[in-house]
């Protein structure tokens, strides 16, 4: 389906609505807000190691939570001194909704589950299959996504590749449950999976996503990192950002592009693939920089495909953006090439680069 598939973390809704008075109408209106935009599929994550709803087969997040107790009550002890204040905000919201009989997951299109235990043990597989069964019985959703990337390590070290048939068998069983459920519900129920963006990494972690696709077990694969970035951006076609991996199989060489610390007079190169060469418009290179120096043509020599780019000065980038100040540089339209474009940066003082982006506007 064309459009955006938005994946909501299990604590995001509760955290951003902490302290508010919530009812079923307000929860529904929040979902409707997404539907009015470009979001075509809204995915809710209902669990981490506990569930964010009143499960009958797993412990809910708020088990042993005392709404009248202090921030250092036993539930939050493992977070250290002062660590319970933040999590308490969203746990309290989830607890309050459960007390009021409101289940926000009944308004989702797709339910996402995540975990990270040793699937080499039957007890672990049975534990998670119980949750899958409950979700299928509890919710009339359009799809179920298994988030194998949180946290991506499902077998003890050295046994990842041997575990691949185990995860494939798990996927087969889930697909069978969904096939049975869709007969009852009267509509198709899709199965998706979140996996590493590189096939060799997926295989090295026991996720044989290629086999899942070839066997018709999955309707959707989401090649992705775990947390820090995206490695394939599909969306606004004229914003092109340096991305990088943050999940690696044991023994796999690591290559992390950002953040990059560059010393005085050192050359740092990046390449950004922009697809087709723009025929018109303005081109800007944006850098997220941590530096003690004023950014000028003299303090930061920046080139794209060999041509010097004129500094624009500080720029405000739309979210998501860098957590450090961003600076823009004018890129001559004629110098931009189809495909990969070479960016060269030579600072006159030590800098740390955390964001590199080419923006093409009309």
Structure, explained:
The chain is of the alpha/beta class and 362 residues long. The chain contains seven helices and 16 strands. Helix 5 (164-185) links the parallel strand 4 (143-147) and strand 5 (190-195). The chain folds into two domains: 4-236, no CATH class; 260-361, Galactose-binding domain-like (Jelly Rolls), CATH 2.60.120.260. The two termini are 27 Å apart. Residues 230-237 have low confidence and may be disordered.
Summarize this structure briefly.
This protein has helices at 12-16, 24-35, 85-99, 122-138, 164-185, 199-204, 209-214, and strands spanning 4-8, 39-44, 110-114, 143-147, 190-195, 220-223, 239-241, 260-262, 268-273, 282-290, 300-304, 307-308, 310-315, 326-331, 340-347, 351-361. It is of the alpha/beta class and 362 residues long. A six-stranded parallel β-sheet has the order 1-2-3-4-5-6, covered by helices on one side. Strands 7, 8, 10, 13, 14 and 16 form a six-stranded antiparallel β-sheet that branches. A four-stranded antiparallel β-sheet has the order 9-15-11-12, with no helix packed on it.
């Amino acid at each position: 389906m064309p459009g955006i598939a938005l994946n909501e973390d299990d604590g995001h809704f509760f955290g951003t609505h902490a302290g508010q008075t919530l009812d079923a109408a307000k929860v529904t209106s929040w979902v409707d807000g997404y539907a009015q935009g470009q979001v075509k599929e809204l995915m809710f994550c209902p669990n981490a190691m506990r569930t964010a709803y009143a499960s009958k087969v797993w412990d809910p997040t708020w088990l042993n939570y005392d709404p009248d107790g202090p921030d250092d009550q036993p539930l939050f002890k493992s977070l250290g001194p002062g660590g319970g204040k933040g999590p308490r905000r969203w746990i309290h919201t989830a607890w309050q909704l459960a007390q009021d009989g409101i289940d926000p997951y009944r308004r989702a299109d797709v339910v996402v589950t995540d975990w990270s235990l040793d699937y080499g043990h039957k007890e672990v597989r049975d534990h998670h299959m119980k949750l899958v069964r409950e979700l299928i019985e509890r919710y009339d959703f359009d799809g179920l996504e298994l988030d194998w990337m949180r946290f991506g390590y499902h077998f003890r070290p050295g046994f990842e590749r041997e575990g691949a048939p185990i995860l494939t068998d798990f996927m087969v069983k889930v697909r069978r449950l969904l096939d049975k459920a869709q007969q009852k519900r009267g509509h198709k129920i899709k199965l998706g999976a979140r996996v590493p963006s590189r096939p060799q990494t997926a295989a090295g972690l026991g996720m044989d996503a290629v086999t899942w696709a070839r066997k018709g077990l999955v309707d959707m694969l989401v090649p992705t990192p775990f947390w820090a970035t995206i490695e394939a951006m599909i969306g606004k076609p004229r914003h092109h950002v340096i991305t990088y991996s943050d999940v690696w199989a044991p023994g796999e060489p690591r290559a992390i592009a950002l953040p990059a610390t560059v010393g005085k007079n050192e050359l740092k190169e990046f390449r950004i693939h922009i697809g087709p060469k723009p025929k018109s418009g303005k081109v800007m290179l944006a850098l997220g920089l941590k530096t003690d120096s004023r950014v000028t043509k003299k303090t930061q020599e920046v080139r794209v495909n060999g041509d010097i780019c004129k500094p624009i000065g500080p720029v405000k980038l739309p979210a998501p953006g860098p957590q450090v100040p961003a600076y823009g540089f004018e890129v001559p339209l004629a110098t931009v090439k189809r495909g990969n474009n070479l960016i060269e940066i030579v600072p006159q003082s030590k800098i740390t680069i955390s964001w590199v982006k080419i923006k093409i506007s009309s």
